[in-house]
Amino acid sequence: TASRPSSARRTWPDRWGRRKVRNWGSKSVRRQRYVEARDGGRNPYEREPRPKMIDAFGEKVEEWVEQSKATIRADVVHEKLVKMGYRGSARSTRRAVNAAKSAWKAGKLRTYRPWIPEPGRWLQFDWGEGPRIGGRRTWLFCAWLSWSRFRVVIPVWDCTLGTLVACLDTTLRRIGGAPTYVLTDNAKTVTVEHIAGIPVRHPQMVAAGRHYGCQVVSCVPYDPEPKGGAEATVRIAKADLVPTEANLLSAYDTFAELADACLTWCDAVNSRRHRATGQIPASRLDVERTTLHVLPIEPLALALGEERLVGSDRTISFNSVRYSTPPGYTGARVWCRVVGEELSITARTNSGDLSEIWRHQLSTPGVPQIIDAHYPDHPDGRSIHQPRLRPRSEAEIAFVGIGPGAGRWLKEAGPAGAVRIRAKMARAVELATVLGNDKVDQALGLAATAGRFADDDLLSILGHIADSKPAGEVVRADEAHSVQNGTIGWQALGN
Question: Is 474 domain-assigned?
C-alpha cells in the first residue's frame, strides 16, 4: 500500500462531539525529529518545555527555597514575586515551588548503609513517659539488644543517674551479660556537655562502664536514627502499656501493677517470632549470651547511693533518721539515695533484680518515717502483741475447751478487772457439764460482748436463752445508757 502523503489530514470526534484534525505527517519527518533530539542530548520521548512567565524568576525561587530549607510556602513566594513584577498565576508559582523543593530534597537525601549487628556488640536504651499512678508521673526504661532483638522494659519514678545505673544493672543481669557498647542519646546523665562537637562523658557513667565491662557511647545530638531499635521499643511499649483512648487500657492503681504489666509484656514480645529475623528473640539470646562479658557480682554502689543494713526492726538509719522498709528485707543490704525531696531505697529482690522497694519523704532527726503497712503483724501500729490463750492447768484447759466464747470471755474479763475469775470459770465448767458446751459457750460470748462479768450474769443470760427469747441488740452499761424508767407513763394523767 502507498504511504499516506505528508499533507494527508484525518478527522475524528472527541469526547464532546467536536471534530478534531490531526496532521499525520510522514515517517521520515518523525524520525528526523527523534534524531535531532538525540543528537542534542534531549529525550526524544519527552515534550520540550514551553517558555513560561515564571522562568525569569526561577533563580529567585530556588534561592528562597535554599534559604528556608524547603519549608517556605508557595503563597508566600507568590506574594514576593508579585511585588517584583510577576504577572503569572498562583498555580504556576505552586508548580515552580514544588519543582524547586523536589530538586533541593533530592540533593539533600540521606543515604544509609545496611547495618548488620554482630552478637554481643550493641545494647541500645532510651526513656519513654509512662502512665500516671495516683497523679504521679512515671517513666519507662526501654532497652534493646541489637542482634537477638531482645527487649527489656522497666518502670521507674524518675530518670536520675542512680535510677539509670540501677536499670542498666537489672537489664544486664536479665540478659545474662554485658555487651561491648551501650548506645543512647545525649542526656545530662550520660553526656555533660559538647566541646567542638565532641561529647564529654559523665564521670560516673564512665565508671559504670568500667565496672560492668562495656563502653557507653552516644549518638549525634538531635539524630536519634542510629538507635532506631530503642526508639521502636519505646513506641511499642507505650502503645501497649500506657492507657489511652486507642488501646482502652484501665489506669494502674499501684506501681506494682505497672511493674507486673511490664514483665508480662516483655515475656510476650520476647517469645514471639520477630519479623526481621524470623526467629524468637529469647532463643537468639541463648546464642548471644555466649558472646557477652561476665558481670560483676555486686552492682555499682556509688551510683546507687549509700549502703545500709536493714535491722531487726525493719528500719535503716540515714542522716540520723530512721526509715522503715517492707517485710522480707531484714538483715539485707540496701542502697539509699536522695531524689529531690524523697529518699529512694533500692535492694536486690528474690529474683536477683535490683529494684526500688520504697520511697520516703525526707525527714529530720527525731521524726522517724515508719509506715504501718510495713508491720502487718502489729495491727493499729501497736508494738505489743495481743496476748494469746495458753491454758496450763486442768481448770484452765477445761474452761477454754468449752468453746471460742469462753476464750473471748477470758480475754475481756481480765482487762476489765473482773473479780473471782477462777471461781466463775469453774462455775461455767459445771454448767457446761449439765446444759452442754454450746449453750454455755453462747452465753459466755454474749457476756464478753456486753461486758457482764458479775456472779449471776452467766445464769441470767442462760435463762434468757432457755426462754427462747432473741438476743437482740446488746447494750453495754455505760454513761450513754440509763436503767431508770422513762416518763412516758405520766402522759396519761389528767385524761
Answer: no
